[in-house]
Amino acid sequence: MKYVDEFRDPARVRRVLDALWRETTRPWTVMEICGGQTHTIARFGIEDLVPPALTLVHGPGCPVCVTPLETIEAACRIAALPGVILCAFGDMLRVPGLDGDLLAARARGADVRVVTSPVDAVRLAAATPDREVVFYGVGFETTAPATATAALLARRLGLRNFSLLVAHVRVPPAMEMLLADPENRVQAFLAAGHVCTVEGLRDYPALAARFRVPIVVTGFEPLDLLLGLLAAVRQLSAGRHVVENPYDRVVAPDGNPTARAAVDAVYEVADRPWRGLGVVPRGGLALRSAYADLDARRRFPVDVGAVAEPAACRAADVLRGLIKPVACPEFGRACTPDHPLGAPMVSTEGACAAWFQHRRHREAPR
Ligand code: SF4
User: For position 1, what pLDDT does the model report?
Assistant: First the structure.
């Protein structure tokens, strides 16, 4: 298959669904990791199409959702400093800190700009030597190569007015944490295809073997999701637990070595807090000491202090797959995309936003 229509072709979808219904003979719970996959599931009503014995739960794979409130608040405060231009991807602008979001900070006079690439922020720094340009680097293994490239470029250009507010996270350690949780209900994973595009499959065989969970690398179209679920169900039914890669039209077993080399040059693996999960051991990236001068938290030591999450928000349970968004008492009531209480309702990739957009009129809590 080559074209997107083929991955939404009703006849092909019907055939895979028939197999899924035939072969799902016991209750299973499968988690898709990525927020993009969550949106496909919600948008195309995939939960309504699969056998009732197959429970789909949504993972923590939205980088905006897992960025700690403390980091969001730090971004807002750094943006408000005189002389600073804070650059970010557009999805970070509406994520609320303690006193509003970056859009509110901009309305109060902060110079906050949306860029489509961290390299644009480096160019801006080169063009405005009298200003401090900070790029707000949020994301999984997929965006880390771009911010690493920006750091390498800034160093090559000798820029002293460019820095990075780093909030990159790594997915496999979070999967490990979910699986080790005594409350875990996930029996198989649909791994995030775009993360594997960079990282390849290398982290997953040990996870699959240790926790006896099938891990199926999956894309983002409806047929991708259904084929991933079918592969997971076939493994579960057979008592197998290996890594499969039906998304091999995009993901090579060793990923993208060039992108990884850039990341390895600039970052080292570090423990990092994930919103909703707490500190995930080896769950993020930090600038290597050779690049410490590019660290915006060192250059602008804003004191955010301890930050508490809104008490009513059940994001931690949503992100661990323990509840569906609709089971949160605030879903669609106090919490909507226009007035989000928690990050999963803010981001376009967030599970709560996906459910609000696509399922709020047809779903009873379960
Ligand atoms: S619906 Fe809103 S309050 Fe509830 S878990 Fe989601 S983001 Fe938090």
Answer: 63
Q: Which residue has a Cα nearest atom 3 of ligand 1? A: 313
Q: Using a 6 Å cutoff on CB, does residue 331 contact ligand 1?
A: yes
Give residue 128's domain range. 65-170+255-299
Which phi-psi region, left, alpha or beta, contains residue 83 (left: φ > 0; alpha: ψ -120 to 50)?
left
Q: How far is the CA of 75 from the centre of ligand 1 (A)?
A: 22
pLDDT in tens, 63-120: 888 888 889 999 999 999 999 999 999 888 888 888 888 999 999 999 999 999 999 9
Q: From CA 128, how far away is CA 36, in angstroms rounded?
A: 36
Question: Phi and psi at residue 207, in whole multiples of 5°?
Answer: -65, -45
- Tens digits of residue pLDDT in 7-66: 778 889 999 999 999 999 999 999 999 988 999 999 999 999 999 999 999 988 888 888
Assess whether the C-beta atom of 58 lies below 6 angstroms from ligand 1: no
Q: Is 230 helix (H, G, I), strand (E, B) or coil?
A: helix
Q: Domain holding 116: CATH number?
A: 3.40.50.11740
Q: How far is the CA of 288 from the centre of ligand 1 (A)?
A: 35
Smallest Cα–Cα separation from 25: which of 190, 239, 216, 323? 239
Ligand 1 atom 7: residue of nearest CA: 342
Q: Do the Cβ atoms of 267 and 168 come closer than 8 Å?
A: yes
pLDDT tens, residue by residue, 265-290: 999 999 999 988 889 999 999 999 99
Asked whether 326 lines ligand 1 (CB < 6 A), one says no
- pLDDT at res. 242: 97
How much distance in Å is there from the Cα of 334 to the middle of ligand 1? 9
Number of folded domains that form the chain: 1
Q: Is the CB of 342 under 6 A from ligand 1?
A: yes
More confident residue, 172 or 309: 172
